[in-house]
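Students often ask why we bother encoding 3D structure as a string. The short answer is that it lets us treat folding as translation between two languages. Here is a chain of 174 residues written in the first language.
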Amino acid sequence: FVFAGWFSDGDLISIIEKTVVRIRVCSEVTLSPDNYEFIYKFNYGTGIVIHTEGYILTADHVLQSKNCNSSQSIWVQNPKSNEWISPQIIKRNEKLDLALLQVGEQFEDIIEFSETRLLTGDKAWVAGFPDNPQLQDKNIVLSLGNINNPSFNFKEKENNPDNRKLIQISNYVI
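And here it is in the second language, the structure alphabet:
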């Protein structure tokens, strides 16, 4: 997720630690030919707490799985206790690549969205848990850069059939 604005580094770290969550999704289940046990593979992604009642926003593509039982294949890690919680899927929108989850936990801190327009040159932090096998057990990954274009029109129709505007940033995203 991208956080834009002029945060002090300490303030941003405090916000991220309380509101950015790791999401684990069962991506594939296979049966071991040796001992007939199930072998689970997982993908990881990131979500942000947007409401004190446990509502979490993530990208829809994070929730995709192949042959796992969908009701038991998604978990959210509580940023305070590090426990894995099974969320309820409230809404998914593949077209916008957004999904809304809810966990049965109360959160004191949430991400508040600003109505301030992003400007070219604004500082932008990228924070998340990339789906990279070497980083799955690590802490959150942070990257600092700038807003290059707050209303980038990705013209490649194959990857952007709805002609959506995107935010172009200079950050390296793992």
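Translate back mentally: DSSP finds one helix and eleven strands in the chain. Keep this in mind for the problem set.
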